[in-house]
Automatic annotation (TrEMBL):
Name of this protein: Uncharacterized protein
Record organism: Acinetobacter courvalinii
Amino acid sequence: MSLLSPQMNKFLLMRSEVAIPSTLELKLLKGFYEHSDVIVFDFYKARLKYWDYEIIISRYGDLTGFEANTNRIHLDDYINTENFTISEVINIGFSLVQFIQNLWNHLRDDECTIILSSDLKSEFGSNASITFHKKRPNQILVDCLDDCPQAVFICNNSDSLQSISDALKIM
C-alpha cells in the first residue's frame, strides 16, 4: 500500500539516488528498539524510559500515533537545507525511505509504514521529515491525502519506490 499526495508525485518521478548524511546513517545502523510493543529507532530509546503507556494511549489514541511522533527525523537536523533545493532534500528523504525499508526487512519479520513529508514552502527553507510506525491491525495513521497541503509519501517496508514511480509514468 502506498499513498502519494499530488505534490509528491513529481518528486518521485524525478527521484535520483543520493547519499544519506553520514551522521544520520550511523545512527540508523543501530537498528530498532522495542519495548511493550512500541518500536523506535534505537537512538531514540531513551524517549521510552519514563513513558506511561496509559497516557500515551489517551494522548495519541494508539501506539501507532505515538510511534510516528516519536520516530520523526527532521532532515534539517542533519543537513544545512539552505544549501539544497527542495528536490534535493526530498531525494535524500527517498533515500532514507529505502534505507529504513532495507534495515527493517533485514532486522524484523513484521511490517511497518514509512512516511516522508515536506511543507515545500517553509519560512525556514527546504525541509522534509521522515517517520515510521509498526503496522498494526485497526490502527491507521493516515489513509487519505485528499486536500493535503503538504507533499506526502506513505509506503510499507515491502513497497518498491521504483515500481511506484514506474506506475506513475504510465498514468
